[in-house]
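Lab meeting minutes (informal)
Scribe: AK
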Amino acid sequence: MIVGPNTSGKSNILESVYFLSTGKSERADLEQELINYNQEFSRVTGLVEKDGEKEKLEIILTRGMVAGSKESKKRYLINDVPKRMVDFVGKAACVLFNPEDLEIIIDSPSIRRRYLNNCLETIDSQYRRAALSYEKGLRQRNKLLQQIRDEGKSRNVLFFWDKLLIENGSLLTQKRQEFIDFVNKEPQRFGSLTLSYQKSLISPQRLEKYCREEVAAATTLVGPHRDDFSVFFRERNLQTYGSRGEQRTAIFSLKLGEMEYMSLKIGERPILLLDDIFSELDHDNRQKLIEVIPQQQTIMSTTDLRLIEPALRQRMNIISLTP
């Protein structure tokens, strides 16, 4: 338990653990924002122990220059040995729950796609590689669509990239469907939560169907980069018809589903990160969370220890921060 007033750095600690787990920031749109103001680089280092063996995980971010010399903007290291991101991610699986997670329900489809990616990339190397290949292929295909429109190139140049996107995109859709089916399989277990997956299937037929529109827009119009999902509670879409309380409860249930799905896939409990969320939950959900907390390593933060049940406080290692 990390205790301290606002601005004392509690969230930075939890975000650092999440960063080492996923290789991505939960909050920053640009990773350069993770470098302290007026500094040239930042470093996050963690020691992970599993089955008696220890691994040192490290991510180094720069602005491209350190001490006047060019440097990679982002480096991943395991035991001081450089690694690719695809081989680094997932060494310490975790689930992060914070008040901003409400965006998953109320914000744009891109937020929900990012949530699915962050969840699945951490625990599934096959998904991780497919997502990376898909993103690179999508960028290249969109460039070629622009050249077809502006320079009159033949559509034959798309053949290789169509095949790559179909192969990798189909796998992403399949894995996302598996996660959503898992959450929907036991609705009572996760608070009567139901997810409705609006998938954008990618196939030769669909690419052919939208070929003219794609060239005109210079953008690939079908595929998992267009996916979305809706969150329902008792047949009501919570984005449109849910109260704040219901939306918070739904996010709590979704995170419980994520925890259980990760546990099933990797054969162990992921680290649970709780960023000052006790003030956001009602009594019933606090009690549910208290039951979950002892099941895995849990790192929590709060501004006020009085929000934490006395019986739970006695079991926690408490670290106090000052601003």
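Next up, CB showed the second protein from the same session:
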Amino acid sequence: MKIGVGLHPDRGHEVVLEEARQADLQGFDSVWLNDHMMGLRTAHSAAEPLDSFTLMTTIGALTSHVRLAWGMLNPSFRPAAVLAKMLATLDVLTGGRVICSIGAGWLKEEYLAYGVPFFDDHDERIAHEREVIQILKQAWTHPAPERITFQGRYVNVQDLPFNPAPCQQPHPPIWIGGDSPATIELVKELADGWVMLDPTSLPTARAAADWPSRPLTLMRSFYAFVDARSRQAALEQAVAYHAEASARPGPRMGSAEEFVARAIIGTPEECAQQLAELEAGGLNYARLLTTGLAHQTQLAELLLPRVAQL
């Protein structure tokens, strides 16, 4: 199992850039940003969020090893062919470290505020996402001097000599996020990876007769709390963080019991074993969510070596 780590762009550019630098040195496989035009808190500030693509380009310049991913790229914020060019450029500049992790988008408030068209129907957003992904693949695999034309319901490209060709061949991996039936159908059709939210989605999807035989990265995100002393000490970390985070404005985290049930908690050996059990069930990638750089460092020092041993 490979391990990525979520960053904290909401805490300012100096914090997030240092988290990324350290993740690059600590052995994480990837670093992750959100892709939102507005903050998710009810009280907005003048400081955040930063544009995720500009920020990720800076992270790519400051790192050498970690792959670069978003949870998730919004296909509506940038014209499809322009998004293809931006991702291909970043892939070239970073020597092939881009993961095109993409989702349909959901926060209607930011669409309306920035004048971006929003489809209220979820399945229509998936249909738009499907055409964007088709354009990405077509552009990346048919670069100039070839020319491409695509005429869809939502996306149109006419006689385009696309460049640059991405570094990764045939193209940067495309990981699709979400658990809706329409999303899972899109995963089966076009994805190189699936970023799921609902832990019950995977066994049902993999049991379907039309589940693809091609290799797929299957990923979930977890808070992880590890303590070398005991599981109880790690559990106390988790409960304390839940209480602190629940007091802040923003999306609700659910009850402490629900939070603990979703998290990876224990000694290094226990946490590594939990990840191994998830891997046995089909999962092969985890994005760890942290409380900050000190927590990230703790996971790198205590958990990553144990996972490597397994």
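CB comment: The first strand starts at residue 2 and ends at 6.
No objections, moving on.
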